[in-house]
Write a structure and sequence with these properties.
It comes from Candidatus Thermofonsia Clade 1 bacterium. The protein has 238 residues and is α+β, with helices and mostly antiparallel strands. It folds into 2 domains: 1-30; 31-220, Glucose Permease (Domain IIA). It has helices at 2-28, 35-43, 48-51, 217-220, and strands at residues 71-74, 92-95, 104-106, 111-114, 123-127, 138-143, 166-168, 173-176, 191-197, 213-214. Strands 1, 2, 4, 5, 6, 7, 9 and 10 form an 8-stranded antiparallel β-sheet that branches. A two-stranded antiparallel sheet has the order 3-8. Strand 4 (111-114) and strand 5 (123-127) form a beta hairpin. It is globular, with a radius of gyration of 20 Å. The model has no long low-confidence stretch (mean pLDDT 91). The structure holds zinc ion (ZN). Zinc ion binds next to loops.
Length: 238
């Protein structure tokens, strides 16, 4: 009897706790603003055309080109799995509609491209002068351009492993979106794009820490910060 009463008295407590958690999530911006649409992207491919952002030119008053065509579906600072509120997503994921190795990835801005000898799916471009803060140097980082097992790279032949400081113009074809993540889980075809700060010695900082990266929103001309109620799909000025 006592146990049953205890059980019933716990019900409202659990409900209140669940409600508080929901309110807290929305207040703190915890949770993914794009999770539902991203699920729909994979479950219902027919809706993909309505979610795709396609930009041949940068947005007005923005310096960077959106480097690939697709659904900008996992945003900057998203704290949800496989990321956490303590180690959130450091860039944006653009999900292309096509087979692996067919959706082009372009340089977001003029700079000097490097591909380390061990990089299968990744290139990084050095921009000596940040177009929004000209006194500093920044980098743009592009990854997942390889087949799922990593054997076939989808980076174009112009940039073989070991490429160092090769000048590229904004819009230069870098490679194609792939499934390779280097992680045990599968995310789906996309390219990960991030803006990385320079270390004092001029090298790029560790891209996996959000403190070493910048919110790409002002560079792209639309809000891609998961903490600031983004509008999806993104459009210039959204
Ligand atoms: Zn990513």
């Amino acid at each position: 009897m006592l146990r049953r009463r205890l059980r019933y008295s716990l019900v409202p407590l659990v409900l209140i706790a669940a409600l508080a958690l929901l309110v807290l999530r929305s207040r703190l911006g915890i949770g993914s603003p794009s999770a539902e649409l991203l699920r729909a992207w994979f479950r219902t491919p027919e809706i993909r055309p309505t979610l795709i952002s396609r930009l041949a030119e940068p947005c007005p008053n923005a310096p960077f080109l959106l480097p690939s065509e697709g659904f900008v579906g996992f945003l900057y600072a998203d704290p949800t799995a496989p990321y956490t509120p303590f180690a959130p997503h450091t860039g944006i994921d653009i999900f292309g509609d096509g087979a692996p190795g067919t959706v082009p990835v372009h340089a977001a801005y003029d700079g000097y491209l490097t591909r380390l000898p061990e990089w299968r799916s990744t290139v990084i471009i050095r921009h000596p002068s940040d177009p929004l803060q000209p006194e500093r140097q920044i980098w743009t980082y592009y990854t997942h351009m390889a087949s799922e097992n990593g054997v076939q790279s989808y980076i174009v032949d112009d940039f073989p492993p070991g490429t160092s400081e090769k000048f590229v113009k904004r819009g230069t074809l870098l490679g194609y979106q792939g499934l390779y993540s280097g992680a045990p889980y599968r995310i789906g075809l996309h390219v990960h794009f991030s803006i990385v700060l320079s270390a004092p010695d001029g090298s790029f900082r560790n891209e996996t820490h959000i403190g070493n990266t910048l919110d790409p929103s002002p560079y792209l001309g639309f809000n891609v910060d998961a903490r600031r109620q983004p509008t999806l799909p993104v459009r210039c000025g959204s």
